[in-house]
Amino acid sequence: MSKKGTSTFVVQRATGVILVPLAIWVLINLVSVLNADPSVALVWLTPASKSIVFGAFLAVGVWHMRIGMSEIIVDYLHGWLGDILRVLNWFLALALFGGIILSIYKISFAG
Amino acid sequence: MSDGAPKERVLSPHLQIWRFTPTMAASITHRATGMALYGGVTLIALWFIGLALAPQMAATLTGIFRSPIGVIVIIGFVWSLCFHLMNGLRHLYWDSGRGLDPKTATMTAWLIYGVSAVLASVILFFGYGSA
């Protein structure tokens, strides 16, 4: 079992604090951008200020939710099933995190 | 007391043994909305990645977001984020050592159910109104 309880506790609070302003901005814009045509959504996200804030919400959110889900798994599932789920949880978080960062670059900086 | 045997960690008490209180409801709802947001953020991240790297995937997800089921998912996501955000602030306030007495904690639990519902309604009204 992990011996990083304190640092996990701190990271979960820190990502939570960072997510407060990001989530407020996302809540204001989310419904209309998700319902827009993909080409329109892409144009809307193209300014770096928008793709970075939206991408940061998703990337920091992915980290925050990885920790939260890991806590739930540890609370309710012991043994190999819990271990496998926690590895999958890590894997999904890393894949999404990498994809989001790459997408910010592609949307606003790759020209 | 120790016999040297490896100690199994205890599992958390299961949900059905608790007496209902607003604070326990808010605690369970915090977890439930967290799990809903896990699914929702995964979907929105795939949509974001799709816009940049896989246009067909983005188009498919936009179709889902616009479907009746998608509308329900978005309504659920918006309220879940409102609740989890506000209850997260409540947790941070608790971390400062304040607001922990039962009377205050019960009052803030009710408050967060009410305000998150109003906030989500306003966001959805203007979000769908401008689409």
Describe it.
- The complex is a heterodimer of chains A (111) and B (131).
- Chain A has a single domain, classed as 3 helical TM bundles of succinate and fumarate reductases (Up-down Bundle), CATH 1.20.1300.
- Helix content of chain A is 87%, strand content 0%.
- Chain A has helices at residues 5-35, 38-45, 48-76, 80-108.
- Chain A starts with a helix and ends with a helix.
- Chain B has helices spanning 22-53, 55-66, 68-95, 102-129.
- Chain B starts with 21 loop residues before the first helix and ends with a helix.
- In chain B, helix 1 crosses helix 3 (68-95), helix 1 runs parallel beside helix 4 and helix 2 (55-66) crosses helix 3 (68-95).
- Chain B has 131 residues and is mainly α.
- Chain B has one domain (23-129): 3 helical TM bundles of succinate and fumarate reductases (Up-down Bundle), CATH 1.20.1300.10.
- The chains are: A mainly alpha (111), B mainly alpha (131).
- Chain A binds chain B through residues 1, 13, 16-17, 19-20, 23-24, 26-28, 30-32, 34-38, 41-42, 45, 54-55, 58, 61-62, 65, 68-69, 72, 75-76, 78, 92, 96, 99-100, 102-104, 106-107, and chain B through 8-9, 11-12, 31, 34-35, 37-38, 41-42, 44-53, 55, 58-59, 62, 65-66, 74, 77-78, 81-82, 85, 88-89, 91-92, 95, 123-124, 126-128, 130-131.
Task: Compile the SSE list and pairings.
The complex is a heterodimer of chains A (111) and B (131).
Chain A: H1 5-35, H2 38-45, H3 48-76, H4 80-108
Helix pairs in contact in A: 1-3, 3-4
Chain B: H1 22-53, H2 55-66, H3 68-95, H4 102-129
